[in-house]
Amino acid sequence: MSGEATGPGEVGESDALRAVASQVVVEVETWAADGLGRDVALALVQNALPLLEGTVETLPRLQRRAHAQVLTALLLLLDDPVAGALATDLVEVLRDVAPRPRVLAG
Fold first, then answer.
1. Whole-angstrom Cα distance, residue 92 to residue 46?
2. Are residues 73 and 25 in contact, defined by beta-carbon separation less than 8 angstroms?
3. What pLDDT, in 10s, does the model give residues 36-51?
């Protein structure tokens, strides 16, 4: 256990990240056929798999978000509309669950 409190938003985040990660794993084969370098393909898979296999209970939120951010950066390096759409999906997931800034009374 990670020792973190788990709420419904965190479970939703994990499920959304899992959905995008599964699409990335499927698309890597197509991108590789189109000439994607082996190192980039490997990095994409290495950052997608923890999101697929990890759960809220086994992969702390900070680690999930770190993998998602690296995955987003890698997707943005590709010159592919599907990769761009997946990167946008990841940004939306990360933004929707990010803590909102608070205005301090003063």
1. 21
2. no
3. 888 999 999 999 999 9
